[in-house]
């Protein structure tokens, strides 16, 4: 902390922004009152004040301290976000219950997508033998239950969108800053992370399974052909033309779930005009920073009890970077971005290549 009051500068070894910290004094006399404020301008002002009151000899001796303060100037929070064990407080319970009801379905959705084999063989036989009604019926009967499954995936994306909106409202609402929200409301931050983890997992599976697009394209072609012949099949009652059009747009995206969340975040910002856009982007950049720090800091990383938490943390970091890039006016890769992209990519490249290749491709 750099604490300034009544023309007295005090430097202590703590980094408590929010109130009296009582840390060990390493420069000056008195007790430290903590660094109040969180804007980068405030940090710079305190640093300038420090140098104003130091002699040249003292300034020369402060090199190591300035290296430490450099991290603080980046506004990069250093706290442990418990992705494994965070439990909701009473204040979080209402939103947590709402989001939890959606997330309970997520594991089942991923399991269904992972076991999705498609109807490629039946479709090929039907296309090669257009006059064989038995093969046409066999292909149709194979595709219909798969399309019903794809419809469930799409409808789940809409519920996930609403859950994300509830979390954004909770994690950006005044009077707390985004960093305070994430530190105080760790159960909601964990759910936000679980949504991002699911999203990237779903999209990775979808990108490696061309059967999804092939099955749905065959279904639409068959529906169109029967409509021209004035025939209506029973399956149309479940997936009508309007639903089919929306599903087609969804699955046409390389990363449909991430696109849904990006659109939802952008919509949240545009609809909440009284809420500064920085509150939303700072929430995302803070989450990215927390994940990076936990991955690169042995003291934090050793607290993970599950080996899968490392991959979970990386997926969350990449997810919030991409959301930030979509929502922020200049994006995540600009020099003025609050996300340390070099540091994030460095952390990813230090991991086994087979576990991060998809994440690096998502950033590209």
From TrEMBL:
Its main location: membrane. Keywords: Lipoprotein, Membrane. It comes from the Eukaryota. GO terms for cellular component: membrane. GO terms for molecular function: small GTPase binding. Signal peptide: none annotated. It is found in: Membrane. Residues 79-364 form the CYRIA/CYRIB Rac1 binding domain. Coiled coil: none annotated. One of its GO terms (biological process) is regulation of actin filament polymerization. It is a lipid-anchor. Belongs to the CYRI family. This is Family with sequence similarity 49 member A, like. It comes from Oncorhynchus kisutch. The gene is LOC109875903.
């Amino acid at each position: 902390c750099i604490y300034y009051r009544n023309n007295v500068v005090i430097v202590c070894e703590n980094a408590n922004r929010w109130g009296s910290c009582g840390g060990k004094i390493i420069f000056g006399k008195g007790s430290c009152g903590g660094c109040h404020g969180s804007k980068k301008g405030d940090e710079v002002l305190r640093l300038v004040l420090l140098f104003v009151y130091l002699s040249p000899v003292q300034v020369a001796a402060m090199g190591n301290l300035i290296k430490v303060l450099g991290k603080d100037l980046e506004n990069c929070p250093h706290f442990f976000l418990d992705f494994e064990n965070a439990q909701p407080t009473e204040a979080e319970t209402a939103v947590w219950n709402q989001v939890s009801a959606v997330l309970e379905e997520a594991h089942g959705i991923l399991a269904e997508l992972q076991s999705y084999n498609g109807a490629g063989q039946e479709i090929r036989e039907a296309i090669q033998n257009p006059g064989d009604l038995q093969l046409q019926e066999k292909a149709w009967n194979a595709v219909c239950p798969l399309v019903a499954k794809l419809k469930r995936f799409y409808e789940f994306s809409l519920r996930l969108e609403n859950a994300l909106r509830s979390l954004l409202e909770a994690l950006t609402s005044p009077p707390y800053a985004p960093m305070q929200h994430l530190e105080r409301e760790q159960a909601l931050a964990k759910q936000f992370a679980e949504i991002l983890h699911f999203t990237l997992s779903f999209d990775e599976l979808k990108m490696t399974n061309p059967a999804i697009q092939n099955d749905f394209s065959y279904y639409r072609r068959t529906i169109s052909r029967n409509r021209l012949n004035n025939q209506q099949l029973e399956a149309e009652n479940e997936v009508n033309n309007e639903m089919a059009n929306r599903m087609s747009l969804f699955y046409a995206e390389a990363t449909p779930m991430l696109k849904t969340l990006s659109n939802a975040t952008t919509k949240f910002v545009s609809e909440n005009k009284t809420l500064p856009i920085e509150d939303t982007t700072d929430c995302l950049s803070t989450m990215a920073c927390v994940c990076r720090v936990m991955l690169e800091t042995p003291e934090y990383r050793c607290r993970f009890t599950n080996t899968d938490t490392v991959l979970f943390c990386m997926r969350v970091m990449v997810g919030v970077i991409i959301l930030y890039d979509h929502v922020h006016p200049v994006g995540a890769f600009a020099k003025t971005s609050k996300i340390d992209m070099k540091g994030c990519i460095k952390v990813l490249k230090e991991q086994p290549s087979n576990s991060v290749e998809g994440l690096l491709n998502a950033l590209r």
